[in-house]
Amino acid sequence: MSTYDYAIGIDLGGTHIKLIAATLEGKLLQQLSDSTADCPNTKTHKAYTREAWVQKIQQLLAVVALQQACVPHAIGISAPGLPSPDGRSIAWMQGRMEALQGIDWAQQFGCHALIPVVNDAQAALLGEVWQGAARGKQDVVLLTLGTGVGGGILCDGRLLRGHIGRAGHLGHISLNPEGPLDIVRTPGSLEDAIGECTLLQRSDGRFASTLELVAAVGQGDAHAQQLWHRSIRALAVGIVSIVNAVDPSVVIIGGGIAKAGAALFVPLQQYVDEFEWCPTQEKVRIVPARLGEFAGAWGAAYNALQLNTGI
Q: Under CATH, domain 6-124+293-309 is a member of which superfamily?
């Protein structure tokens, strides 16, 4: 292997940093995950400072450099928030991990080459495009379903970024104009209808996590089953609305809720089939993401390779 035959992708999250090193052809060389202190759900919470983020990533890069015995061809970063217009940093962050705002990673590490930053949901889609469920596709929508609902759109083979980089925030489409305002002031949003952030409220205090809800569904709990199907129906309505707007061939479902497997995908496909407009009888496919929690890291590496080598 020559000095520059691999790329690194780093996905920055509130609880974990995930890193992959892969060849330019997409063969995995190394995979790392390290916890962070930027988790507000504990009494001992102390958010990472700017210096702590930089130091942690430097440590992970040193581990990779030691094992690969050479420097990478490209490094990319994935993080929540909106990247700056030049793609060198996160320009805007909603409420947490605020220390990441404005960090120019190339400048921090003394690199002449750009270390590009991409939104984490958009990165997850790029990862699936490179080595996952969207490989070889030209028109794809990704929905990441977890605490909130993120997303990304591939249109005519290109990631849709939008005017200020907010394209793909599909959790904030409105399903009910009379509903309560969500975190970005969208009334009755898809995120509020399906996200774990509202599950406790939607279940009248019974379920704090999707895992608990799905377990109760499997045990025949009537209330849980009713709530689960209402949530999936809302997701299907959101999906067909998105399909009508951007016309993908495939909708990829990622995030924690995708681990529900058939309990999610079977009724979801049935609801989508019921509501989808199919003028040519060609139906959109609903498929699970393949790269799991490391999709953002794969996408960060791919984004860096695209910008630095044009692959």
A: ATPase, nucleotide binding domain (3.30.420.40)
